[in-house]
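--- STAGE predict ---
source: upstream dedup step, 1 unique chain passed
mode: sequence only
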Amino acid sequence: MEQVITIAVAGYGLRGQCYSQYTLEHPESMKVVAVADIVPEKVAAAKERFGLPDEMCFDSAEEMLKHPKLADLMFICTQDRQHVPQALEALERGYHVMTEKPISPDVSECIQLQRKAHECNKVVTVCHVLRYSPFYQTVKEIIESGKLGEVRNISAHEDVGYFHQAHSFVRGNWRSSEETSPMILAKSCHDMDLLQWLMGQRCENITSFGSLSHFRPDKAPEGATEYCLGGCKCKDTCPYDAEKIYITNKKTGVRDNNGGWPCNALCVDPTEENVYEAIKTGPYGRCVYHCDNDVVDHEVVNMEFENGATAVFTMTAFTQNTRRTIRVMGTLGELEGDSVEGVIKVRVFGQQGEEAIDVSKQLIGHVGHAGGDTRLVDNIIGILRNGDLEHNLTSIDASVHSHVMALAAEKSRLNQGKSVSIREFESRF
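--- STAGE serialize ---
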């Protein structure tokens, strides 16, 4: 019988719950044996869900880390600026680590964790889950097949979605670059990671432009109140109205039995009554024009890689849906694809027509980030069972480079798009 990997969960929020769910679906592979969270209701929910004894339930990750090693692997799913201190302590205790992205908004902390991982000879996997999705793995396979020739340019686009921007980056936990991380890191380090992986090259130079253009007080329509349920005269016409997003919207609202994201970020038990109570005076009920947010709502990043190939990445809040699209242009052909539709179209120069590859059926039974969440956990199980630390698809080295790219892009953006040398930027830390 193969080894069952034991898990200690540090942070039982949305991501901690997502990864922990795997253990209930695959008890033969993985088991949660300890949990920590600063919200007592979340700890109580985890205790019941996984059948944990009182002594394996903790009121913070720090409290859990005071104890000797409790499990094989620690899931670190806390806030951005807590990841590295907790991961370093976990490594000292003898844990392997899977940490939610981003590693840290501080380059020196990223490098510190990288060095510690090598020193301890432990698996440190950053949740760059999109590498594991059938969609992007197929794109990678097509590139490596040589069918497109030598890749010279990649164009990638992330549609954040108007409601997602309002929820996470205006009202929510990732609204402030000072409290958490800049947008290019918090939301789009996935994309920096994908681009360097698909290129198979280090990024050498980067530029970026973007700003917070809309979600600010001077853009508030006349009659807008501090809270959406505070008598706002713009409710009927405002797409960002909290009642619309969390209650009545058929895709995101709790009224149509959507008890998952984003409503489960507002309260532990997202009933219509509880969600209404949460938005009356809570952070998710605030007017989007009267929040304390500072992260950008649109950004473009230009990259030059070692072999002279280039890439452009665009992120924008102002879209109906959330999706990623990509175009890869090579010397012998091109491809384009939509991660939501799960269809990749390949056109080889000089040949008639195009090949359409549909990967959507591969998503059956796999949810979260186009199937990437569960496949990431699958990969970690394989690494730990086989002791094969050298073949981690999301190695700490690759993840740190993508973070350096994102933070160098942010430096460029803050300096009116001035080009930043990645090697020079990294050497300062």
